[in-house]
Every structure is written in C-alpha cells, then in structure tokens.
Amino acid sequence: MCTRVTEAQWAYVTNITETNKKRMLDALSLQTKLERVSRQKAIGFNWSIMPDPTVRKQLQLLATRGRTALSDAKISELSRIVSEMKDIYNRARVCPFSSSSKPYCDLALEPELSRIMAHSRSYEEQLYAWRSWRDATGPKLKDRFIRYIELANEAARLNGFRDAGEQERSLYGVEDLQNQISEVWASLAPLYRQLHAYVRHKISKQYAPPHRINPTSPIPAHLLGNMWAQNWKNIFDLVMPYPGKRRADVTSEMLRQGYTPQRMVQTAEEFFTSLGLKAMPVEFWHKSMLERPVGRHVACKASAWDFCNRRDFRIKQCTEVSMEDLLTTHHEMTHIEYYLHYSELPLIFRDGANPAFHEALADAIGLSVITPRHFHRIGLLNNITDDYETDINFLMEMALEKVAYLPFAYIVDQWRWKMFSDGPKDMNSAWWELRAYHQGVIPPVSRSEKDLDPASKYHIISDQPYVRYKLGNLKN
C-alpha cells in the first residue's frame, strides 16, 4: 500500500492534472482505511506490558500516529484540502514586472521569481515580485488553511493531544520541546542581531531616497535576496567584508565545463561513494525527475522519495546548473542515502531517529561540500587562497546562509503552533509580529487580514512541520 500511495503522489507532483489528483486522493483514502484497521487492532493490545520493546514500539506507533481517528469523510476532506492548497501553490503564476509584456502572466516561483529576488537590485522590481507572489497565494489559500487547522486539531484531540502542535512535538520524545527551542534561540539571538546590524548598514548604501533604509529599523523583507528573507547569501556581493578577494562561487566554472543536471547528480553520487556509502540504485537513474519537464505543471520544490520497496528511490528537482543547485542535489541525495541504510527495517521504523535527523545529516553534508578545498578537489576551483580576508569572506557567506536562517526556522512553527493552540485569528498580524520581533524584518507594503503571507511558504500550506529544519540546522 505504501508503494501504491507513493507512486500516486509522485505521478501527481510530476504531472499536476485533475486526473492524477483524483488517483492520488483515491490511493490516500485506501491507505487511510488500512491505517484505521491497523490502529484499531493496535489499540486492542495492551502493548505497554509486552516484553519485546520492538513490538511494543510498533504497536504504540500504530495506535497513536497519524489522523486515522477522524471519520472517513473528514479524512477525505483533509486530504482534499491539503491537495488543493498544494495545487493552488504550484500553479500560481504572476505577470512580468515590465508592463509591456503583462499579457504573458507565466512567471512561476521557480525559477523566475526566485531569480528576481536573488539577482535584481531594483527596489521596485523586487517589491513587485514579493507582493505579486503573496497576492497569488495567500488570499486564495486562507479559507482552506483555516479548515485545515480545524481538522488537524480534531484529529490530534481524538489521539489524546490538546492540539495538532502538541501532537507534532510529541514525535521528538521531549516534554518541553517548545521551551527548549526558545531557550536555544535566545542564546543565539545576539549573534544574529550582530549579523542583522551589519547587513542593514551595508545594504542601506545600495538604495537612495525614496527607498532609503532606516539604520535603526527592521529591514524591508524583499531586500534580502530571497522570497522569504530566510537565506541572505544572494546579497553577499552587497555585504562582502573584503570585496577585492575572490568568492568561492563555482557556478561560472560549472557552466564553462559544460555541467548538466545529470552530471551534477553524478558528482553528488561520487561524493557519497568516496565516503564508502552506497551508489544510487538503477531505478534512481531511470525514474528520478532531474529537470523541469516541458509542457506540464510540476511541483518544482526539490525532494527525495522512498517508494517503500527497498529498491526504488528518486529525487525530484528542477535542477539548474548552479552552485546552489549542486548543493541542493547533495542535500537530497543525503536523504536517499539515509533511506538506503534503513531500508531493511520494518516499514513503520523507516524514518529518521527523530523528525529533525534527516535534515541534520543533509545539512552536515552541505557543510562538507561547500568548502573551497572540496571544490578544488573536484576541479571546480583552480586555486585555494588561504588568508585571513578570504576566510572572513567565506565565513560571512556561511553566516548569511546558516545564521540568517535561524530566526525564520524558529518563527514558522511558532506561528503554526499558535494557530493550532489559539485558533486561526489575526493570522497575518501574528506572523508579522513574530518576524519583526525575532527576525527584524517588516513587510515592504501595508498588509491586512485579507492576506495570508505565511501561505507564500510551501511547507506551511503542505502540512509539513518546519521545526525539523530548525533543529537540523542547530545540530550542525
């Protein structure tokens, strides 16, 4: 059943049609019925007194995991709502900034809008992309998201939890996870604030009146090189401590050498096999989606897939030839390596040691791959310059990616958990209060409760808890 459902989900995200959506929802419905039967059988056992800890844990997971306590109608409704939210998100398109070509409203988040946010230095063009993406997503998703919260909470309460946030946190096996995360963030916030102040000072020189940045106020969220201001590495050229030193960005060298998406994936595989880890199975090369296909809608967000049969593992990625996508390829292949290494376990145990463990491993691999020494070893960097100024530039670039990400990763689930615990009220203002307080960013234009700006982030509308990314980052 797991293979059948995963195949249906794959078919849908790699070819978004109504037919494929119906097949996916039908498969999910069958899976739910099977899980409900399994749950009822597990509840019938007094698993707490069973001597075998492995059997005891499997029965415990069957009895408490998931949302099968809901009625068939509500489970179907929840699946349909999440599917519709993903569909709206993946199909969202906006018009170009240039008024002369506005009839062709075909700019997707990836790659077009993300490129604008990363590379444009026009205040107005970045603002247009930022606002247009939120107009194309949030208002259309808001009512569905509210209903999603209601159904997720109902399922959690039927499983004995106060709300869906508490159910998510229970997977970590830590009683006061939320407080512990807050304490860790509080200890790191001073470092982030120093980075924020430095970046604000540097980019304030980029924009003249009327777009001057107040040197003591939060930064407008569209100026940090990323649609969600979660990663600031794309503005490195504006904030580089020592501009005279060469940057270790190998994109131009990859293009010069004729890299393709296929070669990028092969390069990632060579990295893992050099560590004594496993090569990708035959099915991986035959069935992965490594480039954006022509002529159909797909969900371009990179992801790794386990088809539950111990041999079929795939990556879905609209790969472009760039250093960033090369790192993403290594990240996703780390997930595949983890799948391969626990594939012999019982199906219910085929997951990370906790929900953050997958991301921690993938981020650790990323830190190994991004070094100038590694790029030199694989022929993408000719000379390694070992001096103070180059090292500081490298560390700044890492900080723009890793340190800048910390408050955003913290905020996402703080907001989600608040919506679960307090109910979906003042959703947009609550989001921006958290972002201003913890991240020091503000919306560049006026926002209201008609908007739902958190819905511009895929994880939020696709029923994916985000704290795993925060914890994965902290472990590195």
UniProtKB/TrEMBL annotation:
<comment type="similarity">
    <text>Belongs to the peptidase M2 family.</text>
</comment>
<dbReference type="GO" id="GO:0046872">
    <property type="term" value="F:metal ion binding"/>
</dbReference>
<dbReference type="GO" id="GO:0004180">
    <property type="term" value="F:carboxypeptidase activity"/>
</dbReference>
<feature type="binding site">
    <location>
        <position position="331"/>
    </location>
    <ligand>
        <name>Zn(2+) 1</name>
    </ligand>
</feature>
<dbReference type="Pfam" id="PF01401">
    <property type="entry name" value="Peptidase_M2"/>
</dbReference>
<feature type="glycosylation site" description="N-linked (GlcNAc...) asparagine">
    <location>
        <position position="15"/>
    </location>
</feature>
<keyword id="KW-0732">Signal</keyword>
<keyword id="KW-0325">Glycoprotein</keyword>
<dbReference type="GO" id="GO:0006508">
    <property type="term" value="P:proteolysis"/>
</dbReference>
<dbReference type="GO" id="GO:0005886">
    <property type="term" value="C:plasma membrane"/>
</dbReference>
<feature type="active site" description="Proton donor 2">
    <location>
        <position position="459"/>
    </location>
</feature>
<keyword id="KW-0479">Metal-binding</keyword>
<feature type="active site" description="Proton acceptor 2">
    <location>
        <position position="332"/>
    </location>
</feature>
<feature type="binding site">
    <location>
        <position position="335"/>
    </location>
    <ligand>
        <name>Zn(2+) 1</name>
    </ligand>
</feature>
<dbReference type="GO" id="GO:0008237">
    <property type="term" value="F:metallopeptidase activity"/>
</dbReference>
<feature type="disulfide bond">
    <location>
        <begin position="300"/>
        <end position="318"/>
    </location>
</feature>
<keyword id="KW-1015">Disulfide bond</keyword>
<feature type="binding site">
    <location>
        <position position="359"/>
    </location>
    <ligand>
        <name>Zn(2+) 2</name>
    </ligand>
</feature>
<keyword id="KW-0645">Protease</keyword>
<protein>
    <recommendedName>
        <fullName>Angiotensin-converting enzyme</fullName>
        <ecNumber>3.4.-.-</ecNumber>
    </recommendedName>
</protein>
<feature type="active site" description="Proton donor 1">
    <location>
        <position position="459"/>
    </location>
</feature>
<feature type="binding site">
    <location>
        <position position="468"/>
    </location>
    <ligand>
        <name>chloride</name>
    </ligand>
</feature>
<feature type="active site" description="Proton acceptor 1">
    <location>
        <position position="332"/>
    </location>
</feature>
<feature type="binding site">
    <location>
        <position position="335"/>
    </location>
    <ligand>
        <name>Zn(2+) 2</name>
    </ligand>
</feature>
<dbReference type="InterPro" id="IPR001548">
    <property type="entry name" value="Peptidase_M2"/>
</dbReference>
<feature type="binding site">
    <location>
        <position position="172"/>
    </location>
    <ligand>
        <name>chloride</name>
    </ligand>
</feature>
<feature type="binding site">
    <location>
        <position position="359"/>
    </location>
    <ligand>
        <name>Zn(2+) 1</name>
    </ligand>
</feature>
<keyword id="KW-0121">Carboxypeptidase</keyword>
<keyword id="KW-0482">Metalloprotease</keyword>
<feature type="binding site">
    <location>
        <position position="331"/>
    </location>
    <ligand>
        <name>Zn(2+) 2</name>
    </ligand>
</feature>
<dbReference type="GO" id="GO:0008241">
    <property type="term" value="F:peptidyl-dipeptidase activity"/>
</dbReference>
<keyword id="KW-0378">Hydrolase</keyword>
<keyword id="KW-0862">Zinc</keyword>
